[in-house]
User: Fold this.
Amino acid sequence: MSLEYADSIIMNSNENNTNINNKGEERPIPSSSDILQKESTDLSHSSRGVETIETVRNEINHFIHGISSPDTTTHLSPLESILQILKKYSKFIGPGLMVSVSYMDPGNYSTAVAAGAAHKYKLLFSILVSNFMAAFWQALCAKLGAVTGLDLAQNCRKHFPHGVNITLYILAEIAIIATDLAEVVGTAISLNIIFGIPLAIGVILTVVDVLIVLLAYKPNGSLKIVRLFEAFVSLLVVLTVICFAIELFYADLGSTKKVFNGFLPSKAVFEGDGLYLSLAILGATVMPHSLFLGSGVVQPRLRDYDIKKGYYMPDLNDIENNHDNYKPSFEAINETLHYTVAELLISLFTVALFVNCAILIVAGATLYGTTQDAQEADLFSIYNLLSTTLSKGAGLIFVLALLFSGQSAGIVCTLSGQMVSEGFLNWSVSPTIRRSITRAVAITPCLILVLVAGRSGLSGALNASQVLLSLLLPFVSAPLIYFTCNKKIMRVQINPNNTHNNNRYDVSYEPLKQDIGSEEYLEMHDMNTSNHSESKQS
Assistant:
């Protein structure tokens, strides 16, 4: 509904209204308070005046503020309301599962196996704390990507000096390489165990990850293509979960009480190598590249919403420039952000937490207190022990889970590397060349490691890479906190066609009143804790 339609309602009620322009001439848009006051006066003697005023109030509020008032004429049963919410939520399934892949890669396998073999279930507490931290960071990432329309790397390039930007890029690339080392080596180990392929050749075969991303993931294309890509990654995630559910069924876990006691704080975290392994678990769980990924996978649904509603109509230049100038509308953010964050948190606290805990529990149940080799457990040894102590099927299922997670994690790591290089540097070469170079840089140290150290050095290198990631995390998370607390950055346009800076909602942590007109103010609460905006008149 437009304001002209609101005027027509008032005109029908009082044809002698001298405040209505009957000549079709353009006139300034009045404030909502003026319109509603006029309607209240003109319709006061109408039998349906109250109902009409309420209808106009709702639609004017939606037109001006982008907020729909509750429909008082429609009453849904609790079951219908739940089904409606679930149906809407299902449209947002995908990004959270892709991000959760970052928290269940081969690096997690290596650290969880070592932690379970050395301390049994006592370091489950470290996994739980790491997942809470991951949920906090990812919620901020989703908020940053939705409000600004840019991922974390693009925001760094836009708001930081060149020297700071390059420094952050170098640290981010180191994190990508350390992450890729785990992905590539984990996949190579699984191929070696299942098919007998030499480790070096297995590393080279992981280039397939790049081809999948190049061919399948088109973030600036149709949303259907994006969802198909997300569905493929989600399938690998589901297969991984199924494998570990079967592993838990095979393993003799002992006392259930001891398992749950592992989620409570324990002094084992500070004994021996407990702190080192806890840092490795933290680095394997809250991985720096996941912050770039989490802030970069939310835009396609926002952009699709704005295109369907007519708020954003990209041209060829926008598509070629990866929609760098796209700014999500308030309506798109209000419609999608809360469902996106909910899907993300559910994925982290179900899929990622379950897989990480299952790895440690299986390792603790089968490796703890057995032999000296178990204290130096790696991915090869846990396969051998599972095959001998449980069954060959249990060992095979573990390796299949390693293969599925390695492939899915390799795909999203390649995608993160693409976001890092494109966001920080804005390279002008074609995406194919750019992504191939990024992947080649990441694979080279992995190949050298395999050729020089062989199997004996893989476990130590994997654990060390996860510790390195935990040390790099503050340098990546600091810009994220800075951006999400900055009022100048975390603002949303009230009207998508109005680019004036004073006509924006503030969605940073602290509420801020923004001057919209001569007498009207709007206040936006933190979108992490409130679903609604409030309007006030001074």
In short: The chain has 23 helices and five strands. The chain has a mean pLDDT of 71. Residues 98-485 form a domain with the Hydantoin permease fold (CATH 1.10.4160.10).
